[in-house]
Specification:
The strands form three sheets. A six-stranded mixed β-sheet has the order 1-2-3-6-7-11, with helices on both faces. A three-stranded antiparallel β-sheet has the order 5-4-10. The chain has five helices and eleven strands. It starts with 10 loop residues before the first strand and ends in a 14-residue tail after the last helix. It has helices at 31-38, 56-63, 118-130, 187-191, 196-206; strands at 11-14, 18-22, 43-47, 70-80, 83-94, 106-111, 133-136, 147-151, 155-159, 163-165, 181-182. Residues 17-183 form the Tail specific protease domain. This is Tail specific protease domain-containing protein.
Length: 220
């Protein structure tokens, strides 16, 4: 559902002891208080259907149960004149650290095509730190620092020459973050004022997580 016109409400406590954190509304100065409220709940639903407000580095230390060091991989062409020099420079984005309580409950993140650029970098952080479950539809797949130029005739254009990838080097641009659980709003649901993506996320959280299979005895 569109975030436009909504009252400022970055945090809500939902039925079933589940926190809802709207990342399109959450301000940097609100992160500590919101994560304090969420700390004792059994799960967090992050709403990333839109553009975040510069909170990624502040949130990462609260969520990094995996002890991840890298949030994203960037590749930038090196150019001298009209020639590439040594191909591409690889830049790894270090995750922020801080001495804060780490949230160890389940997380689900709502996504759709309204999530692009910094929102997708936020999604990469959530994936790296807590292995969040993405629910919804693919994000825009449009992420990377912009280059601006003017063409003959006064035509203004922008593009990115930066490749943004998952830390393991797998594709993000032109593909987007892929939902683990695919769901899109329906016309009937919109007319009824329902948030079907959130509803599906809450259903996901009702299903117990299967324990990892124990390793069997070594064989020769």
């Amino acid at each position: 559902m569109s975030q436009k016109g909504r009252a400022h409400e970055p945090f809500k406590l939902l039925e079933g002891d589940i926190s809802y954190v709207n990342l399109t509304q959450l301000e940097p100065g609100e992160v500590a208080e919101v994560m304090k409220k969420a700390q004792g709940t059994r799960a967090i639903v992050f709403d990333l259907r839109g553009y975040p407000r510069g909170t990624m580095d502040l949130l990462a230390p609260y969520l990094n149960v995996k002890g991840a060091k890298i949030g994203a991989r960037f590749e930038v062409p090196l150019v001298a004149g009209s020639s590439l020099v040594n191909g591409r420079a690889v830049l790894m984005q270090d995750l922020a650290t801080a001495d804060v309580p780490v949230y160890r409950g389940r997380t689900v993140t709502l996504i759709d095509a309204g999530a692009m650029s910094a929102a997708e970098t936020m999604g990469l952080m959530l994936e790296a730190t807590c292995g969040t479950t993405f629910v919804g539809s693919p994000t825009a797949g449009a992420n990377g620092d912009m280059t601006y130029t003017t063409l003959p005739g006064g035509i203004w254009m922008s593009f990115t020459g930066m490749g943004t990838l998952h830390p393991d080097g797998s594709q993000l641009q032109r593909k987007g973050l892929t939902p683990h659980v695919a769901v899109r709003p329906t016309l009937a649901g919109l007319r009824a004022g329902r948030d079907e993506v959130l509803e599906r996320a809450l259903q996901v959280l009702k299903v117990p997580v299967k324990p990892a299979a124990a390793a069997g005895p070594a064989t020769r």
